[in-house]
Design a protein that fits this description.
Strand content: 25-35%
Structural class: alpha+beta
Radius of gyration: 21 Å
Shape: globular
Bound molecules: adenosine-5'-diphosphate
CATH class of the largest domain: Alpha Beta
Oligomer: single chain
CATH superfamily of the largest domain: ATP-grasp fold, B domain
CATH topology of the largest domain: D-amino Acid Aminotransferase, Chain A, domain 1
Length: 408
Amino acid sequence: MDTRTGLPVVGMVGGGQLARMTHQAAVALGQSLRVLSETPDDSAALVAADVRIGTHTDLAALREFAKGCDALTFDHEHVPTGHIAALAAEGVKIYPGAEAIVFAQDKRRMRERLSELGAPVPMWRPVSSAADIADFAAEVAAARTEAGGAVRTEAGGAAQAGTDSGAGWPVVAKAVRGGYDGRGVWMLADLAAAEELVATGTELIVEERVPLRRELAALVARSPFGQVAAYPVVETVQRDGICVEVLAPAPGLSEERALAAQQLAIDVAHALGVVGLLAVELFETEAGIVVNELAMRPHNSGHWTIEGARTSQFEQHLRAVLDYPMGETSLAAPAVVMANVLGGAPGGMTLDERLHHLFAADPGARVHLYGKQVRPGRKIGHVTVLGDDMTSVRARAVRAARWLQEGE
Ligand code: ADP
């Protein structure tokens, strides 16, 4: 507790934009987020008052950081589970716990656990050789033939196969650990590609290439008390493995499917004992939904909630880790779109000049910049637009983000 205010202190490990935006939410709750940052120039370290410099792999630094915090949480999923368990054993309230976060760190464990829980997942397999990958491709082909040109999911649903029927290829290989924004995901066209990847020594799983219609995300928060709150299901639009737009609510999603996705996320949160936010990234196929992956922290698919929902995901995460009752999750407008601003090519107008132009062109666009150095392709901010009509709201959000990115 901060004795000056009588209000709790939450420590967040990691100083990226998620910590920066959580800090903003903390301010409204009368708090100030304590941040463990790698450098003083990290996104959250630039704005928070209580910044400690240290690294998340250093148990002694984590221990020191935890002193005086009411709860500890994370802006990323890279803290070793051994460290999390050690701190919890010493009485630190640290959320999500080691037994939950492991499923966000390790794609193999995540797939195993979700399969056990009966959650819909793509066909998948851990592999250690190119021959394993070829066997898996053959298995996918056999399943497609058996299903009469349809792809079965493990939940028993059936979806139309894509046009690629080349004996199960391409398959999707994923690094078991450490991937993000599509790094650590490889589309393998054939055995030669599999051989090349296996030669790198990366620990891998492979999955069928899901014939996806689009990608969705279901975001929920869960408190230690076990209360859960679910946000409206959104559509996430990816380019080159990076999320570029989020549409809330997911346009044209049936009520039935939206409820199923929310229920799935709630069930997973309870089953894994998640405390804080859980984002379930989903693929929508003709037949239903399958889980792509899990994140246990504020998530890019929830940035729209800052203006677009009654309670932002960042405040909800704080409420959850402090065991406050959850806030309302309903939409603040019929259509909300968030577009990420990625670093553009160097040169041209400064970011400041671009902002002048953008604000003149669209006074309703809500801009969030993360104070990060601009590097091509790096997420440096996002824009959110609210309105009545999804098509026009989306066009405005995309235009605003492109303007900040490219200055044109
Ligand atoms: P990361 O952890 O790097 O975000 P993901 O597992 O989310 O990686 O995969 C990145 C993107 O690759 C997904 O958003 C999706 O577009 C595509 N992808 C991943 N797995 C599959 C799959 N099994 N079938 C089809 N596309 C996939």
